[in-house]
Amino acid sequence: MQRGLYLAEHDRAALADYLLASLRRLAGAGVDFAAMTANTPHLVFDELASRSPVPLLSIVEVCAQEARQRSLRRLGLLGTRFTMEAAFYPAVCARYGVAVVSPRDADRAWVHERYVGELLKGEFRDDTRQGFIALISRLRKEEDIDGVILGGTELPLLLSTPQIAELPALDTTALHVAAIVKRLRESTA
Helix (H, G, I), strand (E, B), or coil: what is residue 101? Predict the structure, then answer.
């Protein structure tokens, strides 16, 4: 994870090459498709999809599909700084008629610090949970969001309820796993 975060910040071309090498190994092993089961690497998803020897299943796409299915129109986005600042969630969700709102700069910095400094280390603190709930509540009031994207695979470990601050939470990890299982079942049917 540390290497991926370093490359996300300093060398996205190298991040794409790093991930593409893994995709090529998977293709060599005979997989039918691949899934990047983290949100941040989707910074280079489009490039990877165009160069990958196997089809890719996007965590972002399945989240956008679920938002549309639930008739959600405006979602708050939480994750690493890279995920919250990137265009991939807003762009994909826009194709489904869903707007995505990231927290303000100071809040993004707070989320990223907690994500990297605590969650990635397996620390799930009550004060951090309460801080996330307060942030989601503020986004609901200030940005009129009607749902929240837990756009980091560790976030559902901290925020494990289907509703947070009275808003539906889209657990991208669970949604992606369900899509992967569905795809596997379809390929074996």
Answer: strand
In the chain, which residue ranges form alpha helices assigned H by DSSP? 2-10, 12-28, 45-51, 59-69, 81-85, 88-94, 105-117, 126-143, 155-158, 172-188
> From CA 100, how far away is CA 87, in angstroms rounded?
10
Q: What is the rounded CA–CA span in Å between residue 16 and residue 46?
A: 10
Among 129, 90, 135, 130, residue whose Cα is nearest residue 108: 135
pTM above 0.90, yes or no: yes
pLDDT digits (tens, 9 = 90+) for 111-169: 999 999 999 999 999 999 999 999 999 999 999 999 999 999 999 999 999 999 999 99
Question: How far is Cα 168 from Cα 158, in angstroms, rounded to an integer?
Answer: 15
Nearest-angstrom CA–CA distance, 20 and 9: 18
